[in-house]
Write a structure and sequence with these properties.
single chain, alpha+beta, Pnp Oxidase, Chain A, seven-stranded antiparallel beta sheet, about 35% strand
Length: about 210
Amino acid sequence: MKKINFPLNKTETGVSWLIPGALTLVSTYNSKKEPNIAPKNWIHPAAFSPPLIVYSGPLFATTEKNIIVTKCFTINFVDSSLAEIACNCIRWFGKERIAKSSLNLVEASKINAPLIAECKAHLECTLYNMYIHEHGFVVLGEVVAVSIWDKILHSGPEEQYELLDLTIPRQNGICTLVNKIKPIHGFSETIQIHKKKVEQYLKEKS
């Protein structure tokens, strides 16, 4: 099969559809402890130790303004039952967005940010670093607490993905993460070996 050049200037989504990310709602407080939620799917792990998450957001958005003030944020994973709500909530702003979404907010365990009660898993993050460029923000957060449904945690690898029910935005809607896992012999051991090598490298560098 022949490969051709991709027309970067002829698509609204650029190459983002080649790197699909799970749909989440990032929740924050401002200086007056007024909550805000925003859908984000450009979120990826960045490091093992400390556990870092990186995501990008638009310039001067409320979420990023709040993170600058409070130095923390929560990533709430969205399942298929909440996907339409999460995608459509950008029609509104601030308190109206939360009211129209009919989502319930509860306090996080370790940071000054709310969690969305309806979500099955949450990452509580403190601000590790932030890079501001002309088109927006790149936020690096350190995960300081994780909460997840106990049924998911205590299930097998195949069931965990099915129960978590992650959703991935596409150009014309969403899709769910297909539950098809092909075990790789020795993969867990490979990950641990790689992690130790990274830790040793960082130790030597410091």
